[in-house]
């Protein structure tokens, strides 16, 4: 007769394992989604039709002014209105979170099964079932809390900022610090941080899909509208959560947080995404097939037992259930999900914030990284190093934003005030500038872009009072900088009704608009060649060059148009800005090259500058640079041919980036592409891994990308690739480790049926024990596996390569067989020698577990040998898991209550010696096989 335990527990064991798997798999999913949808409480504020008010009335009503609010007033309002964020869902109480762990159909079934077992007075079995349910709930509770915290921290890393006028100056603050009455500056790429009534709008278009569902951007203005105008037509309003796709503007905050339109309609659904990737989906599908196959095998063995071995139908049914319990890898999906979540956390710790999870895997297949130059490969800490006027070339000392430094002509310091041409050029870049300098306790801080900040610093070094200059010649209008036209222009009017237009930008863009140049003796026709030569000298030194020019404006015109700056400008000078490469980027480029990843620089900068920096950084081919103009003249076929060999692309626009990504992808290469501007969005979306800049990137770029760099640093991309490769490796290791365990167990049960054993080597509760205990110790330790030593010295993985390769299946197959033969042999030997089924089963369970411990070390490296210090001791989680598991097994074998629960018996030292001896065989056999595979591969590759 079959063991009596087998009857009830076969069924219950199956249920328990299914429930456990479903429970574990859900912890992480819940962790992600738990607080994703904030419950919004509408703010009890009177509804004002801000869109129907004149701008002056709005300013009066919110008690603000054109210079913005003063700091004490901001603090008072912040205390009154609260931070500008949507209220988060109230966290569930710990008790509710714990109880929620039981909210699962399979757990219900298990509980019912436990109750029925108890009613039948099978107290021990009922105890085991309730124990499993409780342990599942406790682990779920702890893991869910940790996952929620980790993901909240990652979300927090992406908190948006706003540029706002405070105490008369433009500063950058966290969007949460905005209060009603704040004056906010908007520019293309910004996400509108609160509900704003626009006071100024310069060609501003806003995409309001988040609010209205309409994805075509709406042109905005400032004129008041009828009170009953529908939300989507309120052109003088900019609503929180919408995206500025073009132009600039200023708006006054009229509502924050829950009082905003988006807050009112409670539509702010945070990025809720499934914690899954293509590999996980592939494995889920594989799991379904496997389950089906197991059911077929179970049915076949049922028929076999019934017809060939003369088991009763009831006994055989239960034996088949036991087989299914053993063979289905219940823990695998959960372990894979956990591995993925740990990988995402690890990437965030290395400044790469994953926005879309499949990118984790794609990163491991990346063959080309197309990177911006400024700020990603270089430090973006700009300093003006050279200024060239018509008369002479001057260098400038000092570093960073500290405005102390001197101008020098041929190594002699000069007084800038004695050089009227220099002073005029400095005045030009001060006026045509959106940045400001602020002295703080710790040093100087720039508000605005680093390049404009550096120009301000140069002006201060030249002795200019920048604040006074901007007051004397206030700005009336501007054409904002866009990388498509590569210049910025501003219109100014003096109090004596004089008017000037200043233009600064890329030399080509400015020079073609100039007719003359400024000299000490007045203006004279432009000597284009001389200026181009000056520019080349600066660019060859790796400096980014900027030209500045001026033109008188029409005193009575208050607006500025592209037509006004088409020609007739007078060139004042050139500025050469130094922006040294990041040391970490140089090292990371080298790492990428070793890893078979080609790095390409795609920059808006001049070709000469770009090549000089590319050389300093160590890109492969730096002699040729293709410019945007050359790309335009090239057919797709020609570009496809050149794209693989050329690494430097200069003066490109975002449209070129899109073309480059497409051509590379057509060549079968997986591409990662960086971007920061609103126009980069199409290229970022198209790239296999779009990478946005976290500090200098626009919100539009972030939303279009898969990954955001918290530090804008190229090195973080290389780190993310390393982590991506590691996560993929770890996912495969989990498969490679777990499947043979199930395979071994199943073969033991199958063997027992085939040989017609009356007493099985493993009971279902024991199988349940092994599966649960090894999943929470050994398999979990693999999820923490650090990168393998050679992870960045092998070529990228081919994305078409199947996960379950023939070598993989071969390993799974023969390891299952080793586990089965070893377990079976020791069970039979002990049963034959001692006759006690309890003791023989205890030997079998411990042999199986010990096999797994040894095989875990094999699984740490897929191909590399592990019989070395690093292989055996390199992951402390593995060691911890082994110690824990041994303690569990000691309790399982010697502790009375567990002996009763699982039907085990104490073992002697001789038993253990034999078990360790037999089980260690797997370690050596697998290592031997790995060596053979490597040798064969070495022979094949010559
Ligand atoms: P990368 O793509 O590597 O970040 P980039 O930042 O130099 O390159 P763009 O921002 O498109 O690319 O700038 C292109 C050129 O336009 C610069 O080389 C510079 O000459 C000019 N430029 C950049 N910013 C401004 C600005 N605020 N005002 C005027 N001209 C600018």
TrEMBL record:
**Xref: Gene3D superfamilies:** Calcium-transporting ATPase, cytoplasmic domain N, Calcium-transporting ATPase, cytoplasmic transduction domain A, Calcium-transporting ATPase, transmembrane domain, HAD superfamily/HAD-like
- Which positions fall inside the Cation-transporting P-type ATPase N-terminal domain? 49-122
Give any Gene Ontology cellular component: endomembrane system
Q: Where is the protein localized?
A: Endomembrane system
Q: What is its main location?
A: membrane
Q: Give the matching InterPro entries.
A: ATPase_P-typ_cation-transptr_C, ATPase_P-typ_cation-transptr_N, ATPase_P-typ_cyto_dom_N, ATPase_P-typ_P_site, ATPase_P-typ_TM_dom_sf, ATPase_P-typ_transduc_dom_A_sf, ATPase_P-type_domA, HAD-like_sf
- Entry keyword set: ATP-binding, Magnesium, Membrane, Nucleotide-binding, Phosphoprotein, Translocase, Transmembrane, Transmembrane helix
Q: Where are the transmembrane segments?
A: 6-29, 98-120, 126-142, 289-308, 320-344, 734-755, 767-787, 808-828, 840-857, 877-895, 901-926
Family the entry assigns: Belongs to the cation transport ATPase (P-type) (TC 3.A.3) family. Type IIA subfamily.
> Under what name is this protein listed?
Carbonate dehydratase
Protein's organism: Halochromatium salexigens
């Amino acid at each position: 007769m079959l063991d009596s335990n087998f009857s009830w527990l076969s069924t219950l064991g199956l249920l328990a394992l299914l429930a456990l798997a479903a429970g574990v798999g859900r912890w992480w999913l819940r962790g992600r989604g738990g607080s994703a949808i904030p419950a919004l409480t509408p703010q009890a504020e009177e509804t004002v039709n801000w869109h129907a008010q004149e701008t002056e009335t709005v300013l009066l009503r919110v008690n603000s002014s054109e210079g913005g609010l003063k700091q004490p007033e901001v603090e008072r309002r912040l205390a009154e209105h609260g931070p500008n964020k949507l209220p988060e869902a109230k966290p569930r109480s710990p008790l509710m979170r714990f109880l929620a762990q039981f909210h699962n159909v399979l757990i219900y079934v298990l509980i019912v099964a436990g109750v029925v077992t108890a009613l039948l007075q099978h107290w021990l079995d009922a105890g085991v079932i309730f124990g499993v349910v409780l342990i599942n709930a406790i682990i779920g509770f702890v893991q869910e809390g940790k996952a929620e915290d980790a993901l909240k921290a990652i979300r927090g890393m992406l908190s948006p900022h706003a540029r706002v006028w405070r105490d008369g100056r433009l500063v950058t603050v966290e969007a949460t610090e905005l209060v009603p009455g704040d004056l906010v500056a908007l520019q293309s790429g910004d996400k509108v941080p609160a509900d704003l009534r626009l006071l100024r709008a310069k060609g501003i278009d806003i995409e309001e899909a988040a609010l209205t569902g309409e994805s075509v951007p709406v042109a905005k203005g400032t004129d008041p509208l009828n009170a009953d105008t529908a939300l989507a037509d309120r052109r003088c309003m900019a609503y929180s959560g919408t995206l500025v796709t073009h132009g600039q503007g200023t708006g006054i905050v009229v509502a924050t947080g829950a009082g905003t339109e988006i807050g009112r309609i409670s539509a702010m659904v945070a990025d809720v995404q499934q914690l899954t990737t293509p590999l996980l989906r592939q494995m889920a599908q594989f799991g379904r097939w496997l389950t089906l196959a197991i059911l077929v095998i179970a049915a076949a063995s049922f028929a076999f037992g019934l017809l060939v071995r003369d088991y009763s139908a009831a006994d055989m049914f239960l034996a088949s259930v036991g087989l299914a319990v053993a063979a289905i890898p219940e823990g695998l999906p959960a372990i894979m999900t956990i591995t993925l979540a740990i990988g995402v956390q690890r990437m965030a710790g290395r400044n790469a914030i994953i926005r879309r999870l499949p990118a984790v895997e794609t990163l491991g297949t990346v063959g080309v990284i197309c990177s911006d130059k400024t700020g990603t490969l270089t430090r973006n800490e700009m300093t003006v190093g050279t200024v060239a006027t018509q008369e002479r070339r001057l260098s400038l000392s000092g570093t960073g934003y500290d405005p102390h430094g001197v101008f020098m002509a041929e190594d002699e310091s000069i007084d800038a005030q004695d050089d009227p041409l220099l002073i005029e050029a400095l005045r030009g870049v001060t006026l045509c500038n959106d940045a400001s300098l602020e002295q703080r306790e710790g040093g100087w801080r720039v508000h605005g872009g680093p390049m404009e900040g550096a120009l301000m610093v140069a002006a201060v070094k030249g002795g200019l009072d920048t604040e006074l200059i901007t007051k004397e010649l206030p700005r009336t209008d501007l054409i904002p900088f866009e990388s498509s036209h590569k210049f910025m222009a501003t219109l100014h009017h003096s109090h004596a009704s004089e008017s000037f237009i200043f233009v600064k930008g890329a030399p080509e863009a400015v020079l073609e608009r100039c007719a003359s140049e400024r000299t000490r003796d007045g203006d004279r026709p432009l000597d284009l060649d001389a200026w181009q030569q000056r520019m080349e000298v600066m660019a060859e030194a790796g400096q980014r060059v900027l030209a500045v020019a001026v033109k008188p404006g029409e005193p009575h015109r208050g607006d500025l148009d592209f037509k006004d700056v088409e020609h007739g400008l007078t060139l004042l000078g050139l500025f050469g800005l130094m922006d040294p490469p990041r040391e970490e980027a140089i090292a990371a480029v080298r790492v990428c090259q070793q890893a078979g990843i080609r790095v390409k620089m795609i920059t808006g900068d001049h070709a000469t500058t770009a090549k000089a920096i590319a050389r300093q950084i160590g890109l492969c081919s730096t002699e040729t640079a293709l410019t945007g103009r050359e790309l335009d003249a090239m057919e797709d076929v020609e570009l496809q041919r050149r794209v693989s060999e050329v690494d430097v692309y200069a003066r490109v626009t975002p449209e070129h980036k899109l073309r480059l990504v497409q051509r590379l992808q057509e060549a079968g290469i997986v591409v990662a592409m960086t971007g920061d501007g609103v126009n980069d969005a199409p290229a970022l979306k198209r790239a296999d891994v779009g990478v946005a800049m976290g500090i200098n990137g626009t919100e539009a770029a972030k939303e279009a990308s898969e990954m955001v760099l918290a530090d804008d640093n190229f090195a973080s991309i290389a780190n993310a690739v390393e982590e991506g490769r590691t996560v993929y490796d770890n996912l495969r290791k989990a498969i490679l480790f777990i499947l043979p365990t199930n395979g071994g167990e199943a073969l033991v049960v199958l063997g027992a049926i085939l040989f017609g054993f009356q007493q099985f080597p493993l009971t279902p509760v024991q199988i349940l024990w092994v599966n649960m205990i090894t999943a929470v110790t050994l398999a979990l330790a693999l999820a923490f596996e650090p990168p393998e030593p050679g992870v960045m010295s092998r070529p990228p993985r081919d994305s078409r390569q199947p996960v379950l390769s023939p070598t993989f299946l071969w390993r799974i197959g023969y390891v299952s067989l080793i586990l089965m033969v070893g377990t079976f042999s020791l069970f039979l030997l002990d049963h034959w020698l001692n006759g006690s089924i309890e003791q023989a089963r205890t030997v079998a369970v411990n042999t199986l577990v010990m096999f797994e411990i040894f095989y875990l070390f094999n699984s740490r490296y897929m191909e590399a040998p592990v019989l070395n210090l690093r292989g055996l001791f390199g992951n402390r989680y593995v060691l911890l898991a082994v110690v824990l598991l041994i303690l569990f097994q000691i309790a399982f074998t010697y502790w009375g209550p567990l002996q009763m629960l699982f039907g085990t018996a104490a073992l002697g030292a001789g038993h253990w010696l034999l078990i360790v001896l037999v089980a260690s065989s797997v370690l050596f056999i697998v290592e031997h096989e790995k060596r053979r595979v490597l040798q064969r591969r070495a022979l094949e590759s010559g």
